[in-house]
Write a structure and sequence with these properties.
With about 280 residues, the chain is of the alpha/beta class. It has 8 helices and 7 strands. The chain has 2 domains: about 180 residues, TIM Barrel (Alpha-Beta Barrel); about 40 residues, no CATH class. α3 links the parallel β4 and β5. The longest helix is centred in the last third of the chain and has 43 residues. The protein is elongated and about 90 Å long.
């Protein structure tokens, strides 16, 4: 698909593995205070979903720490939506205070599980949101988007009431893209390339964050090593006994190493030459 498609569905209606394109995402809508819905969500994630998925939480009451911790388990599913290792989650509710407190509780629980942050998206007023039964509306809106020269990255959200609607909408969107490719091949190619570049940017962002984390870990490791007594003593000896020596004395030491056969003569003049003999 040329755009991200999100199918918003309650997990109770999923009774068999979902068949959709690889880049479609299922959004499981639940009330975290409802244990039955939470259980159905776990069952759906384990048995019926091979595609990327994420959660949509309806917060009608204050989210307890226990509920927030239970939700963290979904983040460890290999197919949970985590672009750049940031778990994505939709949140909605009528009380702004309850929603804000719930988001804060989710952030704290995620931090306790070593997630630096989570991507929270408000679901109350999603743009480009449609009911699956309104196939004519979806078809016209998607056709308009395809024909537009604007390279938008906004996703399309489809609310599903029955399981079979997923396959129906998927077929409708695929048909529109096929027709668009046949009639506007150049624009289709440009949009496809733009889509691929967006995915590469996300991947590079992931690699950048991983490199930053590795550097941070190495810095922490070196600080721990340097803080130990032996490392500190060695560093102090180097600073106080060697670094204070005059430069001519250090160079004389290198010449002595050459005369003793411990260092190659060429290394005195070229940094690219091998310094020490085996």
């Amino acid at each position: 698909m040329l755009y991200d498609i999100y199918y918003i569905v309650t997990p109770q209606i999923l009774q068999q593995p979902v068949k959709s394109t690889a880049d479609a995402t299922l959004v499981l809508a639940i009330d975290p205070a409802n244990k039955n819905e939470l259980s159905s969500c776990f069952q759906a994630a384990e048995q019926y979903i091979n595609n990327p998925f994420c959660l949509l939480l309806t917060l009608q009451a204050a989210l307890t720490p226990e509920q927030a911790t239970a939700l963290m388990a979904f983040f460890f599913f290999p197919n949970y939506l985590k672009p750049a290792v940031i778990p994505q989650i939709f949140v909605t509710g009528n009380n702004e205070g309850i929603v804000a407190a719930g988001i804060e509780s989710l952030q704290q629980s995620a931090a306790a599980q070593a997630f630096s942050t989570i991507g929270v998206m408000p679901a109350s007023n999603l743009e480009n949101s449609y009911e699956a039964r309104d196939t004519s509306v979806i078809k016209e809106a998607y056709k308009t988007r395809l024909l537009s020269p604007v390279m938008t990255t906004e996703a399309v959200y489809i609310r599903i009431a029955r399981e079979e609607e997923i396959a129906g909408v998927q077929q409708l969107l695929t048909t529109e893209e096929t027709l668009f490719e046949q009639q506007h091949a150049v624009l289709f190619t440009l949009k496809k390339q733009n889509r691929q570049l967006q995915q590469q940017v996300l991947q590079l962002g992931f690699l950048y964050q991983a490199a930053q984390q590795e550097i941070s870990n190495q810095v922490s490791h070196n600080q721990i090593l340097r803080s130990s007594s032996q490392a500190t003593a060695l560093q102090n000896y180097y600073n106080n006994e060697y670094e204070v020596l005059p430069l001519w004395y250090k160079r004389m030491g290198h010449i002595i190493k050459v005369l003793m056969g411990k260092r190659s003569f060429k290394s005195l003049y070229s940094d690219s030459s091998k310094k020490y003999r085996n």
